Amino acid sequence: MKATLDQLAKFVGGKAKGDGSLVIKGFCSPERAQPDRIGFIEHSGDRRLLKDKLPGAVITTPGLARYFTNAIIVDHPRLAFVMVMEHFLGHKKRPHRKSISKLAFVHEKARIGKGTSVGAYAVIEKGARIGANATIGPGCFVGEKAVIGEHTLLYPNVTVLEDCEIGARCIVNSGTVIGSQGFGFVSTKEGHRKFPQVGRVVIEDDVEIGANCAIDRAALDETRIGRGCKLDNLVQVAHNVIIGEYTLVAAQVGIAGGSKIGPRCVLGGQAGVQGGIEIGEGSQVAGQSGVFSSLPERSSVSGYPARPHQQAMRVLALTHKLPELTEKIKALEAEISKLKRARKK
After folding, report:
1. pLDDT tens readout for residues 221-244
2. How far, rounded to the nearest angstrom, does the alpha carbon of residue 1 sit from its chain's CA centroid?
């Protein structure tokens, strides 16, 4: 598949600069530029990545377009580049065909939608409902009365336990378990007695979940992940957690039970969230932060324990000066002792 620079500019809603008839045969990264491909540059510092070799054309901002002979000018180069990638990758997508492997187990009382594919060694239990044009990869398990929405893709070896629900157009990567038992116990003299985990998990439409995530069912009621959320690999979502729509959660984040994350938040990698607190809409939590108390809307925090980002940076800067400050304090203490001795004489 190929397209001219003018055609691509029109496709992404941008303006072409240079040779509009230039034929583009694909896309490339700035680090591996190719003369018949298109790349993207969104920051002035990114120009250094191109070095001496330029792609055939570049998707870039109005402010950077002057540096390139052939360009598509847009306000959001990364988004436009995604659209171009989808254009070139579209012809490579295999047509979706209904195919239930003879090696899969589908209970006679499960409902499989039109056009849905079920891979080898997948198990679909009694009362489960799979929407139209879904894909259940090899080795997946869908428990009793679980619901999978239309056009949802479960990669191989995903587990969706009983009574859990996944919406439409979701993607769940391999190794993820949805509906695992929450970590709830009542401590007694005899040991730790399990608090029954009898709730469920609800994942709304257009959610993407990375590999090897664990999303626990609620002790009571439900654990819920809102529409359009994106979870990276190795994320732990504990029982009764509520995550608002379009929130981004990076790798190795742990969210303890009963916490509520507002819409359009960003949780950086390895951040931890204390149980039972609320993080307000639009907040940003930096990687490796520990959040131990509720945050108002549009907070920006970092550090352990998490505090406003600018404050955390000042604390970190002072931490690096501790050895120097310690020596100064010791010198001052010695001087004070000397003055005290002299005064006694």
Report:
1. 999 999 999 999 999 999 999 999
2. 31
CA 118/CA 148 separation, integer angstroms? 12
The answer to whether the CB of 70 falls within 8 A of the CB of 4 is: no
Q: Please give the structure tokens belonging to residue 242.
A: 């509520």
CB 61 within 8 A of CB 42: yes
- Ordered by start, the domain boundaries in the chain are 3-92, 99-309
Predicted confidence band of residue 213 (pLDDT cuts 50, 70, 90):
very high
Sign, CA dihedral 64-68-69-70, equals negative
The letter for the amino acid at 16 is: A
Q: For 251-256, what is the mean pLDDT?
A: 98
Residues tagged active-site: 239
Beta strand pairing status for 3-4 and 23-24? antiparallel
Residue 49 pLDDT level (bands cut at 50, 70, 90): low
Assign a CATH topology to domain 99-309.
Answer: UDP N-Acetylglucosamine Acyltransferase; domain 1 (2.160.10)
